[in-house]
Each structure stands twice: as C-alpha cells, then as structure tokens.
Amino acid sequence: MYQPKTIRKWIESGNIDEAMKALNEYLQSEQPDKDEAYYLLGHIYRKKGDWQNALNNYRKAMDLNDKSPAVQAYRSILDILNFYNKDMYNQ
To answer: Rounded to an integer, what distance in angstroms lies between the CA atom of residue 88 and that of residue 85?
Structure first.
C-alpha cells in the first residue's frame, strides 16, 4: 500500500529497493494524485545518481502539480548538471 511517510522513511534509511517497489506498484495502479509518488521516485533516482530518470520523474510530478516540490528539485538538478557537466543530461 502506498503511504508517503513510510516510503520517505525507507528512502532515508537506505531501503531504496522496497521504496521503489511500492512506488512503482502505486504508479501502475488506477489511483489518482500520483504527483507525490513521481516526486519520491525522482528523489530515489537522484540518490542513486541517475540524473536522467530523476529529471524525468520530477517532470512528471510537475506536469501533474505545478506546485509540487519537484519544481525545486528539478531546478536544483539542472543547476548541478549545468555547473559540472552540460552534456550529462543531453543524451
């Protein structure tokens, strides 16, 4: 079952696989309001260093909710990538 607080705890404690599994199951369901799930999935990918998938999931969250915290997370990743390696996310 999708419970954002539990998933956040899993992410912070390093239980990434369990969090990712729960999020993917929720995102494949017919449930509404998936913006937070996409944001959390983006957060997982960011922690793993997978910038492209992090950006993609943040973008999905932003498309569903323009006030999502994914907006700031997305901008932060772009700032980092622009500073360190402009070609990393242009693949």
So the answer is: 6
pTM of the model: 0.84
Pick the CATH number of 4-84 from 3.20.20.70, 1.25.40.10, 3.30.565.10, 3.30.365.10: 1.25.40.10
CA distance 5 to 66: 21
What are the tens digits of pLDDT across the range 14-67?
999 999 999 999 999 998 889 999 999 999 999 999 999 999 999 999 999 999
Cα dihedral 77→65→18→51 (10° resolution):
-20
Would you say 70 and 62 are in contact if contact means Cβ atoms under 8 Å apart?
yes
